[in-house]
Amino acid sequence: MEGKLVLVTGGAGFIGTHTVVQLLKEGFRVSIIDNFDNSVEEALDRVKEVVGPALAAKIEFHFVSFFVSMTFQKNCRFDGVIHFAGRKAVGESVEYPRRYFDNNLIGTINLYEVMAKYNCKKMVFSSSSTVYGQPEKIPCVEDTELKAMNPYGRTKLFLEEIARDISQAESDWQIILLRYFNPVAAHESGKIGEDPKGIPNNLMPYIQQVAVGRLPELNVYGHDYPTRDGTAIRDYIHVMDLADGHIAALKKLFTPDFKGCVPYNLGTGRGTSVLEMVAAFEKASGKKIPMKLCPRRAGDATAVYAAVDKAAKELGWKYVLLTS
Ligand code: WQD
């Protein structure tokens, strides 16, 4: 892999920054584009601090997605693309669906066109466990019937179908769809982590902001779910494990036998409820998290967690952190 050049869209974001750190450590060169919709340019300075000057020298950076074509012209030869860029909050997507269709769908379709123009046809695509909707059977197996239940999940489902159609029609495209479950935590240095703009949509950054006093209390959305404590269950995975899942997927794309468009779950296979997450955070941090029990959030599923065998068998990847 030494020296291969990878374009990382959304590379200044939560999962993007952690993946860039691991890509550099694995010997890849990296070019990043980001429109800072939900990230800050300073995050890239922190990435450079984490990896040190020698590896930092292997990072290029290009602002805003309409530069994608310029990025390609400038570099001409990307060996592959990891496509993170997109909006990713379930609740927000219910409120503002058009933003999600524009950003996630149009943005990705534009990216495919530029990739095709410059004959770069290897993509690791950031998909999501939300394509499973409220699965009949859990843990979710990759060939489970897909049926998203919110606009965010529908954009990811549409984009998976688009990827399948492209690779069906043009056999030289090699695409891996990574279905993330719930990314949490941060790089051990503490220099990079989840720092969304405005009020966090996701559970963990919200809890963290309550813990530091930036927000008064956590709204617990739904306590009447048919689960062990009435709150919804998700599969929370350490972001460093998720980053390593991208490295494994990228390496798979460069193997001669990889063909077509293949989905993989990136999760732990364990379900944790909202109240269990709060209790674990309180235990680990010693901070009490005040809570308010609220009605369910539109678009939320009751329980979603991953079957993890396929990624272990075909990518040689399994989560290692957050084991307790
Ligand atoms: C988790 C649970 C909420 C906030 C995320 C990502 C999505 C995808 C899947 C990557 C739910 C509850 C939340 C709060 C709460 N991952 N909650 N109070 O909706 O599972 O989706 O993981 O693609 O991108 O967004 O995550 O953290 O928003 O919610 O009670 O203030 O926490 O109702 O049950 P979700 P989440």
UniProtKB/TrEMBL annotation:
Listed pathway(s): Carbohydrate metabolism; galactose metabolism
Entry protein name: UDP-glucose 4-epimerase
Catalyzed reactions per annotation: UDP-alpha-D-glucose = UDP-alpha-D-galactose
Keywords recorded for this protein, A-Z: Carbohydrate metabolism, Galactose metabolism, Isomerase, NAD
MF terms in GO: UDP-glucose 4-epimerase activity
Protein species of origin: Linum tenue
Cofactor(s) it depends on: NAD(+)
Top enzyme class: isomerase
Family: Belongs to the NAD(P)-dependent epimerase/dehydratase family.
EC number: 5.1.3.-
TM region positions: none
Domain NAD(P)-binding: 7-318
Keyword Transmembrane helix: no
GO cellular component: cytosol
A single GO BP: galactose metabolic process
Record keyword Secreted present: no
Gene3D superfamilies: NAD(P)-binding Rossmann-like Domain (3.40.50.720), UDP-galactose 4-epimerase, domain 1 (3.90.25.10)
